[in-house]
Design brief:
Layout lengths: L2 H14 L12 H26 L7 H28 L2 E2 L3 E2 L21 H19 L9 H24 L3 H5 L7 H19 L15 H20 L7 H28 L4 H15 L8 H22 L9 H19 L13 H31 L6 H6 L1 H6 L6
Antiparallel strand pairs: 1-2
Length: about 425
């Protein structure tokens, strides 16, 4: 047989041989680009929170309310790099918390993360935005009366002893993740933890002076609507980015996010119309409620299920807000929108999940029970620890400004600035 024939046969056999994939993850420039863009989208949500809340307070407190979100952006960015990321995603310790192996970002670099196609630095900064916005959400509970120094201390400690452990429970290898709890982008980790903690702080700090007796109308509804639109826009990165790849799962999460927000906004508008008039503040708040509720489910459910989740969010959050009014001065309804919306979204995930996981309607009723355990654990832990933390700060340096400072407004008394001349 000629040598050329032998070589030809060998080449054919080589081409037909099975190819074994590398064990290590292969980096994807497209996935990395998408997660970095998603990180920037979530970043936009942080000033969005400031504007959303800032428009709903009285004009004498507009600057101070926006300042809370900006201060959190700076402080929690540092906390996350120094120790927060490690506590959330370090090696598991007893199912409760991560180790300090990544403190100061040791070992977190440009190499591809195990099991993913993006660098560990990309994953770290994407998760940083979640930590930042969770703390920023709580600020709606105590605006117009909190002492800025006490707020900084509370926020730093809360991020460390409440957010970081819960993030580890679900996403970092902790006990809820091992149990099988589903939370695609933060229904329990972000929204229940912030909403329930907001209620705890509100109970400790007490009502604003004149609550229920003097008008406390929003001073700038267009500002609030702008904030809501920025939140809706940024939420595409929040949810679709949580696929951690530029793939079909991200596309599904993108579509379900928009669909649930639209359904909740429209539902809230109809409910407010039934009681008074269709409200632009209502439709903005409803959209946020829908975004909250779809967050844990975004990658697990279909767009049709997202409609049901959005409608449920509009109904449950709307009536939770009415229930809270004149009972507790949880100023901007973080509990009603994020606490109740996140709770419904987590349970609804157990009902409607059909993509990558199965829920009640797909023949797995046990998932609802697992989701209920995750909800209950987050409610109890976040409320108890936050209440104790707020009490300790209140009994030491004090949470609340003096009465005269509250009267003149926190813009002047805490920051020596005015939103409007």
């Amino acid at each position: 047989m000629k040598l050329s024939y032998i070589i030809g046969i060998m080449l054919v056999l080589f081409m037909l041989a099975p190819v074994h994939a590398e064990e290590e993850s292969v980096a994807s420039a497209g996935d990395n680009a998408w997660i970095l863009v998603s990180t920037a989208l979530v970043f936009i949500m942080i000033p969005g929170v400031g504007l959303f809340y800032g428009g709903m307070v009285r004009k004498k407190n507009a600057i101070s309310t926006i300042m809370l979100s900006l201060a959190i952006l700076a402080m929690i960015s540092l906390q996350w790099v120094l120790w927060g990321y490690s506590l959330a995603f370090g090696s598991d310790i007893g199912g409760f918390i991560g180790s300090l192996e990544f403190a100061g970002l040791r070992g977190v670099g440009m190499e591809t993360m195990e099991g993913l196609t993006i660098p560990s630095l990309t994953f770290m900064i994407f998760q940083a935005m979640f930590a930042i916005i969770t703390v920023a959400l709580i600020t709606g509970a105590f605006v117009e009366r909190i002492k800025f120094s006490a707020f900084l201390i509370f926020s730093l400690i809360w991020a460390t002893i409440v957010y970081d452990p819960i993030a580890h429970w679900v996403w970092g290898g902790g006990w809820l993740g091992k149990l099988g709890a589903l939370d695609f982008a933060g229904g329990t980790v972000v929204h229940i933890s912030s909403g329930i903690s907001a209620l705890a702080v509100a109970l400790v700090i007490g009502a604003r002076k004149g609550f229920g007796k003097v008008p406390m109308e929003p001073h700038n509804i267009p500002m609030t609507v702008l904030g809501a639109v920025l939140l809706w826009f940024g939420w595409f990165g929040f949810n679709a980015g949580s696929a951690l790849a530029a793939d079909g799962l991200a596309a599904n999460a993108f579509v379900t996010t928009n669909t649930a927000a639209a359904a909740a906004a429209f539902t809230w508008m109809l409910l407010s119309w039934r009681h008074r008039k269709p409200s632009v503040l209502g439709i903005a708040t409803g959209a946020v409620a829908g975004l909250v509720a779809i967050t844990p489910a975004a990658g697990f459910v279909t767009p049709m299920a997202a409609i049901a989740i959005g409608i449920g969010a509009g109904i449950f959050c709307y009536y939770a807000l009415l229930f809270r009014m004149n009972r507790v001065d949880e100023s901007l309804d973080v509990w009603a929108v994020h606490g109740i919306g996140g709770t419904w979204g987590a349970i609804a995930t157990g009902i409607f999940a059909s993509i990558g996981a199965t829920g009640l309607l797909s023949g797995n009723p046990s998932q609802v029970g697992i989701q209920a355990i995750a909800v209950g654990a987050t409610w109890i832990y976040a409320f108890v620890v936050t209440y104790i933390l707020a009490k300790v700060i209140d009994m030491t340096i004090g949470l609340r400004v003096e009465e005269a400072e509250e009267d003149v407004g926190l813009d002047i008394s805490q920051h020596a600035e005015k939103a409007y001349s």
